[in-house]
Amino acid sequence: MDLNTTLAAQYGGNSNTGCVGYLPTPWLPYIQVARLSPPAGFFLIYLPHVFGVLHGAIARQAPLEETARAAAITFAGSLFVSNAIHIWNDLIDAPLDAQVERTKNRPIPRGAVSPSVALLYTFSQTIGALALLPYVAPGYSIRETSIYALPSIVGWMYHPWAKCHTNYPQAVLGFCVAWGIVIGSLAMDVELFTYDPFGHQNSAPAVDFAAVFLFLACILWTMIYDITLGIYAHQDLQDDQKAEIKSIAVLYRDKTWVLLLDMSGLLTVYGIVGGMTLSYYVLSVGGSIVTLSLIVARAELRSSESCWWWFGNGFWYAGGAITAGLLAEYAQVFL
Prior knowledge:
Blueprint: H1 3-11, H2 28-33, H3 40-60, H4 64-97, H5 115-136, H6 142-165, H7 169-187, E1 193-194, E2 206-207, H8 209-226, H9 232-235, H10 237-243, H11 248-252, H12 257-260, H13 262-274, H14 278-298, H15 304-331
Antiparallel strand pairs: 1-2
């Protein structure tokens, strides 16, 4: 099996290598449909929560114990959310996936998991995520926490249809993933926005503008990773055109590199507004610039093998750089 075929199976929802290969064969389709191996999909969901937790920890100069608690509870919640949204997406996308070479052998299109079982599987993971919701932000009522979670829930439910309605389904995905920053910040008792329509607290509406810029940067980071703005999406370009699937790659063809440059600018503005120090700019901003420059310079958008390599590695570079910069900034609380 050549590298291209191996990577396509690994990241296309058909992985049966590594630890997964030791599991009983009947279990494999359920691991695959939830994208549990490799866990890149899970970390795509979890890392924005980490960004939010660290943003809140820096803003409040929170003790390590509180930050660790927030990171742990969002880790558990992200696992259930990741499982639910991947299964739901595959369930709705099954007819389209059957028309695309990279996805036609996913568990639902190939018949290894029936639609009814996939729906029950989705519900079970959703219930798990909702059960953890009261523990995410102990300082808030379940009603308040649910209101904060609602936009991402609606977004995740709609996302599978976005590619049929707009040329920017990656932006919808980016919004849903980046909402983890809102939840992560909330877990640290820091709200992205505050508004009390009933006047209980007699406070004016307020917005955490630093977090807004981090949120926008995370949207682009997600787009760069998952459909990778002309990298991952270029793998499916011909199939997407035949199936009339909308995406940024279909719309912009070879001009998608332009959006790759915006993320570093947003991270820089976040640092300025948030009062970050040199360590943040070197690690988060500098690391992202290096990562994006490498992707723009090295990725061959019409080479599937090159696309797969950058799809699997570019995510860790940029996400790791942002995390490292925020961690370095937070570490200064204890110095």
